[in-house]
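REQUEST ID: PR-0412
SUBMITTED BY: lab tech R.K.
PRIORITY: routine
TASK: structure prediction, single protein chain
INPUT:
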Amino acid sequence: MPSSTSKQSRFMRMSATKAGRKRLQARGVKPAPIKTAKEFVEADKSK
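STATUS: complete
OUTPUT:
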């Protein structure tokens, strides 16, 4: 399922990488599960 907004897309791309997850946690934001984030990233690429 592709992301519906650019903000969601950015969030999922960050949640899919180790560095991005650290950055989100530093801001106090809970990252999305890795599996879900990677599915969104793949769907966005094929969009």
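NOTES: Residues 34-45 form the longest helix (12 residues).
REVIEWED BY: pending
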